[in-house]
Design a protein that fits this description.
Structural class: alpha/beta
Number of helices: 14
Strand content: 5-15%
Strand order of the largest sheet: 9-8-7-10-11-12
Helix content: 40-55%
Shape: globular
Radius of gyration: 21 Å
């Protein structure tokens, strides 16, 4: 999200000075996005309570911005000397708490409450999330502005094939956790592979994530497809783009999703995509993907059967994906998320 917004803002407002508060990994590539973009590197994690409480307020006072934008749930529980904007991506910790591990669940719940109380402007990434946040935290929906994510232009472009990738394969991209539907992805794939006697492997790209963690290798052994399920671990963006573009189909089966950026990236790449029919995913993919019920491996298997056996369907989805994805543009997000010093949305 941050990269897309910053690059779009530098094009939209070349006179706008942007200071990026970055954590352990830094963002040197973004600091080169424009002459008025600079980085304030801090030894902090993505969600870091001690940093938010102790160092961040002092840092904001040092920088003296007109607006501080917290892009991932957390505003300090202290007054800041500027207008504040916060992006709340979903209300999973309040609406589906079983999908978030304890500790992180309580931390994000408290952060959301503080941010709703303190922010001058509140954004979220979908109409679904606006409804969920309003219902979960008892705030008026009109208090929350919908600013959908965008998809980077690079996902629409041709990519060289990733080395060692089979000619035909199914692809799962996302955190390897229950919330993202990994158990039903592997179970549905196993039903499909046995029924069709297919040897097309299932490639998994992603890290363990922050939700209820699971072992994909153990799931594959239990489903008797250990030799066909191949965890790749985290992959860089060029490799990810190549995998989307080469995949016979992409599985994105999240049990709860505030937006679903991997599904949008898959559509932009022209990958036939299977997504769950709940939360925000229908809002994102529209009719350009096959939709299946949450936690329904048999429906996943049936969708894989259709993609493998119906060339006309596959071609239709490849053609419809990119135009659908182009509806979600970082430049539009930047225009909506560029908050004036009076707190109004531009």
């Amino acid at each position: 999200m941050v990269e897309g917004l910053v690059r779009a803002l530098t094009r939209l407002r070349p006179d706008l000075e942007i200071v990026l508060v970055t954590g352990r990994h830094g963002a040197q590539d973004l600091a080169a996005a424009g002459p008025l973009v600079r980085e304030a590197r801090e030894a902090a994690g993505t969600v870091d309570p001690s940093f938010e409480a102790e160092r961040l307020p002092d840092l904001v006072r040092e920088v003296r911005p007109d607006v501080y934008h917290a892009t991932c749930f957390v505003l300090p529980d202290l007054p800041l000397p500027c207008r504040t904007v916060v992006t709340l991506h979903d209300a999973c910790v309040r609406r589906r708490p079983e999908l978030v591990r304890p500790g992180l669940r309580e931390l994000l719940d408290r952060a959301t409450e503080v941010s709703l109380a303190r922010a001058d402007a509140v954004a979220t990434v979908s109409e679904f999330s606006r409804r969920e946040i309003a219902a979960g935290y008892g705030v008026p929906p009109g208090r929350i502005e919908v600013v959908p994510n965008g998809v980077d232009d690079a996902f629409f472009e041709a990519s060289p094939p990733a080395p060692g990738v089979p000619e035909r394969f199914w692809f799962f991209a996302g955190a390897l956790e229950e919330r993202k539907g990994l158990p039903e992805a592997i179970a549905g794939y196993a039903i499909h592979a046995r029924r069709t006697r297919s040897a097309w492997p299932l490639l998994l790209a992603g890290s363990r994530g922050g939700g209820a963690r699971i072992d994909p290798a153990a799931l594959a052994r239990e489903a008797d497809v250990a030799g066909l399920v191949r965890p790749l671990g985290p992959v860089d963006e060029p490799t990810l783009r190549s995998l989307y573009r080469a995949a016979s189909g992409v599985l994105y089966l999240s049990r709860y999703e505030g937006f679903g950026l991997p599904a949008l990236e898959a559509l932009a790449s022209g990958a036939p995509t299977i997504a769950t029919d709940g939360s925000a995913l229908p809002e994102v993919v529209g009719s350009a993907a096959l939709l299946v019920p949450e936690r329904d491996p048999e429906s996943v298997a049936a969708a894989l059967d259709r993609l493998q056996g119906d060339c006309a369907l596959t071609e239709r989805l490849r053609l419809e994906g990119p135009p659908r994805a182009r509806r979600f543009d970082w430049r539009a997000a930047a225009r909506r998320c560029s908050c004036t010093t009076t707190g109004a949305w531009s």
